[in-house]
């Protein structure tokens, strides 16, 4: 018996085969040459451009767009990569609507920014078809351990290799890429782009990736500090915040990040089970990515429930619209109080909330949503940490407090948890390590 | 990365991109910023004789012509030579050159057309450390009314005379900057060469009025209700400049005379085109005035990439490469037959090609039901107008017919090279050899 959108429970194969292909195709298809030319011609080449300031990696956006406009996309890609070696992925996943494109003066003038993200993809896609453009400085004989092969670790490793150091990257998962591989909605990076980009990045040489090695389990920080000239921690956020609502351990309740990761690793979308009535709790991009993909897998009803007002959601307006266009309902000012079910999840109970001077409080009125699957997307947190690291709130301080140990990416504070921010921090840490090693 | 280092009449610079003598090079502050941004050299804005400096108008100096999206295509100006004291300019030039020894620094000069004036100014600049001089025989407004600038440049005998004085009283390399406001650009170039010039630079600006205010009936730029012609520059003048550069590069009398190409250079591609037509380097003004000094970064990266792709290791590999292919109309191959071809996948069905061809050309494009546009080879003369008006690059292309094929328009077989000089319709035709 085949399943449909109306089949109760968490089941695979709700849609006809062709629907999966369509639903998980490129979310924002690449610009062709003509489109890129027209888009590039709109850039004003602003002085001290606001888009550069808005970019966490400070890519010289007007320059790379001018290089596209003058028919040299490879030079454009070089301008991008000089600042952001993962510019290809960032072109796909950056929330440009809250970064460079929001700052674009043509957003101010006409409400239509220059399509910076898509132009960046045009340039990087073009140049990635060619050879890796960077080479290593003369070898220094120094060895650096990078913990975590996510965006921060990879950006750090590449810059270190470029400066002539040898790098060993320790990654607890099977594949490198971090959230680029495991945490991005599938339709944003089709064609196994994350792995292709890692392969391209490693072509510089001097970087060894050791998979399945976890800090604290397989190797200690003390040992790394003893064996290497420097250590960079790009650990990411291994833990997930709990709802602290009754019934959280019922089957059908799952972390959104696990759902997203599982989806990325299963090329046969029809084999991925999904509920008929799906509830996602949270207000960020992870919530949107989980909710939208649940719909694309054939869930009949998908709701994002966020405890504060819609204007407080960390998912951008663009992301929220994207979710709503996919048929996701967004419910705000509602906090989960109980998860009901007898053996399996059946309903989620929420209390309405108001935000006042004293913070968020519940009004006392509650409602229930039918649910056979619940995704928790209320934020991630650090996993277990080695001793001795300084903290910055709930994160590792950028100045780790340990000699010869640097940190960057989502595991540190100071910046939004974005791929592009992690790249900037990894890159800058590499330069700091280089300066320190070369004294 | 290709090596962009350029040696132009013995003046070395890290790249062939110089800023032209103009407002961007009027003082130390600007020139330092230019060098920091990566410009290979500058021609310092024109110095005049010692004495009270010239004065400028106190209203608009510039007028403009825009394309779609307010892209600046042409700029006109009525600014005169430097209005700062000579000794200030000399002091600053010396200082900048001392701090930036690897960049080219050439001084533009314009003094009255007498031997003493030139002898005097050359002595004054002697110890600045500058790499050369450029004689401003081109400025078309203001100074020309006083017998300088274009007033000299329009009289080849004056050019030769002044150039000779300069070579007599100075050891510096001498570039003569030419005005395009003349019937035959080869004549002043020949005069410069006869006078001993090491190079010519061109073009200076073109006499122009950019617009007329239809409320006040005054030309733009307007000063208190009146306007005077200014000098036109920017992307709009590039084709005129390219032709004049090519004319000098291929003329028997001036062949081999080094040329500094000026006129609308905005991107690496513009620069490469000037160089292919014989310019040893280029000078830029309007692009910098429109986009700031940083614009040179695209020129550097673009030219490097192009040269790498072409396997050129030095700018000398590029200079003059197109000159042998510039010829006279009478030598063009009349047996070269092409036909327009419309890529139906790229076509967005705007119909501009059809309107152009049907209304103003040869009725060689069919408009089929469903707005499908197709070329009728039996009528197409390959005029290229459809290509030029099409908004989609490479949607319409000109496809040459193979030798031996029959042109459906003329019924004639495409055959070997033959030009007008031997064509039967030419009363002056000579028998083919």
Word description of this protein:
The complex is a heterodimer of chains A (439) and B (433). Chain A is an alpha/beta fold and 439 residues long. In chain A, 35% of the residues lie in helices and 20% in strands. Chain A is built from 17 helices and 17 strands. Chain A has helices spanning 17-23, 33-41, 50-54, 61-69, 73-83, 87-93, 100-103, 105-110, 116-128, 151-162, 179-182, 193-202, 221-227, 256-265, 285-296, 317-325, 419-438, and strands at 143-147, 166-171, 207-211, 230-233, 239-240, 253-255, 277-282, 301-305, 328-331, 334-341, 345-356, 359-370, 373-377, 380-381, 391-392, 395-396, 405-407. In chain A, helix 2 crosses helix 4, helix 10 (151-162) runs parallel beside helix 17 and helix 14 crosses helix 15 (285-296). Chain A is globular, with a radius of gyration of 22 Å. The N and C termini of chain A lie far apart (69 Å). Chain B is built from twelve helices and 20 strands. Chain B is globular, with a radius of gyration of 24 Å. Chain B is of the alpha/beta class and 433 residues long. Chain B has two domains: 6-325, Aldolase class I (TIM Barrel), CATH 3.20.20; 329-432, Alpha-Beta Plaits (2-Layer Sandwich). Chain B: Keywords: Iron, Iron-sulfur, Metal-binding, Oxidoreductase. Chain B: GO terms for molecular function: dihydropyrimidine dehydrogenase (NAD+) activity; iron-sulfur cluster binding; metal ion binding. Chain B: InterPro entries: 4Fe4S_Fe-S-bd, 4Fe4S_Fe_S_CS, Aldolase_TIM, Dihydroorotate_DH_cat. Chain B: This is dihydrouracil dehydrogenase (NAD(+)). Chain B: It is an enzyme of class 1 (oxidoreductase).
